[in-house]
Amino acid sequence: MTLLEVKDLNVSFQTADGVVRAVRGVSFDVEPGRTLGIVGESGSGKTVLTQTLLGLTPGAQVWGSAMFEGANLLELPDAELRKVRGARISVIFQDPLTSLHPLYKIGWQISEMIRAHDRSVSKKEAATRTVDLLRRVGIPKPDTRVNDYPHQFSGGMRQRAMIAMALALEPKLIIADEPTTALDATVQAQILDLLLRLQQDLGTALIMITHDLGVVADIADDVMVMYAGRAAEKAPKREIFYHPHHPYTKGLLESIPSSSAAGGRLKPIPGQPPSLINLPAGCKFHPRCSYAFAKCKTGDDPVLRPIDDGGAHESACWLPAESAGLSAEAEQLRTETAALGHEPVPAKGQPVGRHRAPDGGATKPGAAANNEGSVA
Amino acid sequence: MATANDTDGDVLVRVENVVKYFPVKAGGFLRHTVGQVHAVDDVSLVIERGKTLGLVGETGSGKSTLARCVAGLIPVTSGRVFLNGTDISRLSRSAMRPLRREVQMIFQDPYSSLNPRRRVGAIIGDPFAIHKTATGAERKRMVQELMERVGLNPEHFNRFPAEFSGGQRQRIGVARALALRPKLIICDEPVSALDVSIQAQVLNLLSDLQTEYGLSYLFIAHDLEVVRHVSDKVAVMYLGRIGEAAPADALYGQPRHPYTVALLSAAPAADPDAAAARQRIILTGDVPSPIDPPAGCRFHPRCPKAEDICRRVEPPLVTHEDSDLDPARTAVGTDGQPLEEAGPGVPGIPGGEAHVTACHFPVQPGESLASASAATIAAERESA
Question: CB B283 to CB A186 under 8 A?
Answer without folding.
Answer: yes
